[in-house]
Design goal:
By secondary structure, the protein is α+β, with helices and mostly antiparallel strands. It folds into two domains: 88 residues, no CATH class; 91 residues, no CATH class. Helix content is 26%, strand content 19%. It has four helices and ten strands, in the order ααββββββββαββα. Strands 1, 4, 5 and 8 form a four-stranded antiparallel sheet that branches. The longest helix is centred in the N-terminal third of the chain and has 19 residues.
């Protein structure tokens, strides 16, 4: 199950005409943005979403552990089956047997640790901001959990209804149709779901 689409939202909201299709699409995108901003996570990833992220060889490493700034769903492998990770150290090539991903038995991963038995290490190059690179899929999951999926739909319906309701006005949303939506406080049930998935602060403990 991917993120909800405009068609999903139209069905969920019980809309029988197509006059609001573009506006609903904007609302879906906005609801997804609220979800990702609140949780600090991405809940949908496809193979085309592979990205290389770069890390500071001094600030992002604690001993043998590289702390990641985003959820790591999976690491890309090269043609030899080696993880596409540049440790930032000349002539050091990491293989799958050199590292473990944390947590070891669950996803997403929040850190990569080089095993002490490997005899390898993370580099501390002078070009610290680009010393280490990791290529992979950066997301909590490839498809959203069911509660996230329906929380987004619930939020879309709330936003849709809010366009004709007064209330505690906050930040406006201007859709492609030129419709201004003035949302009130977001629904507590939706925010409760989002907060359950909020990504904890990760990083080098100093």
């Amino acid at each position: 199950m991917a993120y909800p689409t405009a068609s999903d939202a139209i069905t969920y909201c019980g809309i029988t005409d197509t006059d609001h299709a573009t506006m609903i699409g904007d609302m879906v995108n906005w609801a997804i943005q609220i979800c990702e901003t609140t949780t600090g996570r991405v809940f949908a990833a496809a193979s085309s979403d592979v990205e290389t992220r770069y890390y500071n060889g001094e600030l992002d490493v604690d001993g043998q552990t590289l702390w990641l700034d985003k959820d790591l769903l999976s690491v890309s492998l090269d043609t030899d089956g080696k993880p596409v990770i540049d440790a930032g150290t000349t002539d050091v090539v990491l293989s799958s047997s050199d590292i473990v991903y944390l947590p070891p038995n669950d996803t997403p991963k929040y850190a990569i640790k080089i095993l002490g038995t490997s005899g390898k290490w993370w580099g501390y190059d002078y070009d610290a901001d680009n010393a280490i690179s990791v290529k992979g899929l950066w997301a909590y999951s490839s498809t959203p959990p069911l509660d996230i999926h329906y929380a987004i739909l619930r939020l879309v319906k709330w936003i849709f209804n809010a366009r004709v309701q007064a209330g505690d006005l906050d930040r406006p949303l201007l859709t492609n149709d030129g419709v201004t939506i003035m949302p009130a406080k977001l629904p507590a049930d939706v925010m409760s779901v989002f907060m359950q998935y909020k990504r904890p602060k990760m990083g080098v403990p100093f």
